[in-house]
Amino acid sequence: MPHQVLRFLGPLCLLIGMRSKSSSTSTGPLSIIRIVKPLALPTNSPRLIACSADESDKQLEWRKQELSDVITEVLRRYPALCYFQGYHDIVQVILLVLGSDQAPSTATRLSLLRIRDFMLPSLDAAISHLHLLPAILDTVDPTVRRHLSQTQPFFALAATLTLYAHDIQEYGDIARLFDFFLAREAVIPVYFFAVVSRLICLPRMTP
């Protein structure tokens, strides 16, 4: 099962073990958090609801609160990190796979080592990642590159920013994709989008 693989290998790929007592939720004030209210999170996602289909409404609300708690803990511990729209999608996958005990430490390491450029005060660093896409396409498929030459690569922002967790709601599919991403270099989501671009564009370009 893909979620079982991610449960075992996810923390290992991020070089962490089980959550230690020192990583427990801080009780300090929230005034230093870049976003004071990660409490108005869009937690009503189809993925979370589907994975909680056999649970009561009370249990579903508890899952939503767990998601908010994990995000709050990460932002409290590292106030230089900024919440971005879609961050909850990433943390949600981690929480569903690893559970509330390991999710905070895993989400923290992921935020610091994998998606830090997406959590800075501006999107400049994130956009610089997107500008790799034309260069990749120019190397592997100049025809597709020319087809997309009139547009900026901002169309890849939502997918790469959220490690595709915003676009792929099926739990098994996104867990399997996280397996792949966490086992490879941090830039792999951009290369993956180049593959997706070819699959989308080539049929449209065929006479």
Structural class category: mainly alpha
Query: What is the helix/strand order?
Result: HHHHHHHHHH
Euclidean distance between termini CA atoms: 41 Å
Number of discrete helical segments: 10
Nearest-integer average pLDDT: 79
Q: Write down how many β-strands occur, each being a DSSP E stretch of 2 or more residues.
A: 0
Strand count, sense and barrel status of the largest sheet are: none
Our estimate of the beta-strand percent is under 5%
Helical fraction: 55-70%
As for the number of domains, it is 1
C-alpha geometry: globular
Low-pLDDT regions: 16-39
Whole-number radius of gyration? Answer: 18 Å
Structure description:
The chain is mainly α and 207 residues long. It has one domain. The chain is built from ten helices and no strands. The chain has helices spanning 2-13, 46-51, 57-77, 87-113, 124-130, 132-140, 142-147, 157-161, 171-182, 188-205. Helix 1 (2-13) runs parallel beside helix 9 and helix 6 (132-140) crosses helix 10. The longest helix has 27 residues, at 87-113. Residues 16-39 have low confidence and may be disordered.
Write the layout of secondary structure elements.
Layout: H1 2-13, H2 46-51, H3 57-77, H4 87-113, H5 124-130, H6 132-140, H7 142-147, H8 157-161, H9 171-182, H10 188-205
Helix pairs in contact: 1-4, 1-9, 3-4, 6-10
Task: Name a few traits of the molecule.
207 residues, 10 helices, 0% strand
